[in-house]
Structure prediction request, 377 residues.
Amino acid sequence: MGKWSGKTVIGLTGNIGTGKSVVRKMLEHLGAYGIDADQLSHRAMTKGAPGYKPVVEMFGRWVVAADGQIDRARLGKIVFSDPAALAELEKIIHPLVSQAVDMLVQRTSQPVIVIEAIKLLESDLRAACDSVWVTAAPPEVQLRRLMQARGMSEAEARQRITAQPPQAQKTAAAQVVIQNAGTFTETWKQVSAAYQKISPEAVEAAPAASRQTAGELRVVRGKPRHSAEIAELFNRLRMPSRRMNSDDIMAAFGEKAFLLLQGDGGLVGVIGWQVENLVARATDVVVDPKLPPQRALKVMLEDMERASGDLLAEAALVFVGSDLANLDSVWKELGYTRKAPEELTVLAWKEAALESMPKGAALFFKQLRVDRIMRPV
Prediction:
């Protein structure tokens, strides 16, 4: 039994570019509550958060950008080339992250927690975990992921990889090692098998017979077995230049969850959605035009907000195309306000909007709760 009574805690780590976040998302699909400790460390340094002043005092005003926030790229140039500087940064940030993790674990009602942290084994969080999971991938895969997904130059990516201890040190400390160099399906099978040993009820059962009455709309959580059905709906309603298939949706499950809207004729709506850094982001909102949009959006968004609340999200960002953006009265009734990303007042919300906003989409914003995790102490 770990630090938190009644909770089973998985500590998830692995070197950069080995796919930790994908595995955390898979565990969330299986029912775990996910915490990204590395994102919390970023929050701890934002202006007004408790780590901001100590970091500026330690590393100087040079790390502060024109907007007053700490420039993480500048800070990274210092700490990733100097182990002593990195240790000083961790001395400031790690206690704050531990406090935030403790608060999140105590607040969530879910019995299984997964804490993703690149420095898990070097921090106090390790002792709080019931099981340590490590992701692994060959160096050439790490390099490709950092260059493609994060836009790093080859030199910068190699510096980040070589600055970390050998992967073998982490895999030697693990109870579970996930080899994450293949397809999503291959990784999913490994994660599912390991998770079922912790939570046997996570085994996917055959879908129960529907009890829907005529005209009723029902939202269900999408599973990888729904991939072909989701792809068919996207193809039918979005008519993309390249038709999607089940493999495309399986890959998307590595980033987001899907809420499925079921009606008399089967699948009639989808929201592709994720909670990262305590911000809910809905980037794929598709509704059959035969449905009244107010009714369909209300059912799906209310379910997304409930699920986001369970994940302790502070705010919801919903990105939609022109077919849904002009429904002003509908969005107002649902409590959403149309915003530009630059108008969002919290840095984590603004960064989430800028990172996730599809080209040509409109952003609708709703604050889900007032209390925030990383307020000054």
In short: The mean pLDDT is 89. The chain has 15 helices and twelve strands.
